[in-house]
Write a structure and sequence with these properties.
Radius of gyration: 21 Å
Strand order of the largest sheet: 1-2-10-7-3
CATH class: Mainly Alpha
CATH topology: Cytochrome p450
Number of helices: 17
Number of strands: 14
Largest sheet: 5 strands, mixed
CATH architecture: Orthogonal Bundle
């Protein structure tokens, strides 16, 4: 997703936030800025007869994501599936509401705390170093492609997935979140791309579950997230194999749309602000605040979809029961009522109430793992690179769900 200065505006009647090309080639921040000012709760009709509400203000986004009794996840959570009831609703963590959502989430979250992840950090760190090894002075390095692959390093470790499978899983994940992107399409069709990606990922995780069934139970539940899913009980009953596979699919996608794009977006912006890059790299006290600002800036998960449970009013607009409501995360993270000078990247920004990982019951379960990954990655980059120079065109992912940078060729000047 392109990140503009935010100074532009567009006519409300011309805003189309469904079209993925708006995010790869257009200026969605100009659209969100206009909506925040003129129509913070706005209905959009689609040509096929469907439609949805957009909420763009920070407080309204938090309300839609936090008040699950008013806005349910169980009918689906992404705009691409608008109007199609998700078959995993109520069974998959991403498309279920409390209390079941909480019962599935809690035992998984126990494996993703700082203390639980500590023993895995050396493996993650070694893989990050290997990923960045080709980034040497004088040679072109595709930072966008490397950072797209970055989250799979962590999800692979915590899910217990073989390293040789990572590239195919990254590609299948991109096919799922960006089926309109020509680079990942099957037969030039978004529908065929989604179908193929779903088939491949569900078949893959089905094999992973069957393979573990043949292993001694022993410490299976503590070995990795898949083992935990296979051994835990929810509301007194074990998960079915279908529920296990569905949640594996959801966790993989949730992990792979977040972390890496934060680094790419921050470095791209700081090409024009080398003094701030240098300040961030050299001042240890700014590492965490800078990461939080990079999360706000990039907002890699662009939206979440919810459905109104009953008629409800938001900022004077009546939303009817069953209407789809889309909460736009990057817009909330640029809300002028919450963030001073929101289109300025400031590694020392405090306070910073960004919600890049979402809000409420569905806040990203892997947020701690993502934070660890960002710290390790940026420390490696800061220790190696004195400055970056763009070496070719930046290619953005064609998706209204993920703010990704597919390709970002750079050359680096090494830090002596």
């Amino acid at each position: 997703m392109r990140i503009s200065s935010g100074r532009g505006t567009v006519r409300v009647s011309e805003i189309d936030l469904y079209d993925p090309k708006v995010f790869s080639d257009g200026d969605p921040h100009a659209a969100w800025r206009t909506l925040r000012a003129e129509a913070p709760v706005r209905w959009q009709d689609l040509p096929d007869g469907r439609g949805f509400w957009s909420v763009t203000r920070y407080d309204d986004v938090r309300r839609v994501l936090g008040e699950y009794t008013e806005f349910t996840s169980e009918r689906g959570a992404i705009l691409k599936m608008l109007g199609v009831r998700d078959p995993a609703g109520g069974r998959q963590m991403a498309v279920s509401d409390p209390p079941r959502h909480t019962h599935v989430r809690r035992p998984l979250h126990q494996m993703l705390t700082m203390s639980a992840l500590r023993s895995r950090v050396p493996r993650i760190h070694a893989a990050i170093r290997a990923l960045l090894e080709p980034m040497v002075e004088g040679e072109t390095f595709d930072l966008g492609a490397a950072m797209t692959a970055l989250p799979m390093i962590v999800s692979g470790v915590v899910m217990g997935l073989p390293e040789q499978d990572h590239p195919e899983l990254v590609r299948a994940g991109l096919m799922t979140v960006a089926p309109d992107d020509p680079e990942f399409q099957v037969d030039g069709s978004p529908e065929a791309t989604l179908q193929q990606a779903h088939h491949d990922l569900f078949a893959y995780f089905g094999r992973q579950v069957r393979g573990r069934r043949g292993e001694p139970a022993g410490d299976l539940g503590d070995r990795d997230l898949i083992g935990r899913l296979m051994t835990m009980r929810v509301e007194g009953a074990p998960l079915s194999d279908g529920e296990i596979v569905s949640n594996c699919y959801s966790m993989l996608l949730g992990a792979n749309v977040n972390t890496g794009h934060v680094v790419s977006a921050a470095i791209l912006h700081l090409l024009d602000d080398p003094e701030q890059y240098d300040r961030w790299a050299k001042d240890e006290t700014l590492l965490k605040t800078g990461i939080r600002e990079a999360l706000r800036w990039a907002s890699p998960v662009v939206h979440f979809l919810r459905y109104a449970v009953a008629d409800v009013e938001v900022r004077g607009q009546r939303i009817r029961a069953g209407d789809g409501v889309v909460a736009w995360i990057p817009s909330a993270n640029r809300d002028e009522e919450v963030f001073a000078d929101p289109f300025r990247f400031d590694v020392g920004r405090e306070p910073n109430k960004e919600i890049a990982f979402g809000f409420g019951p569905h806040r990203c379960i892997g947020a701690t793992a993502a934070q660890i990954t960002l710290e390790l990655t940026l420390r490696e980059i800061f220790s190696r690179v004195a400055s970056f120079e763009q070496a070719g065109e930046v290619d953005h992912l064609c998706s209204n769900f993920t703010a990704g940078i597919k390709h970002f060729p750079v050359t680096v000047r090494a830090r002596r």
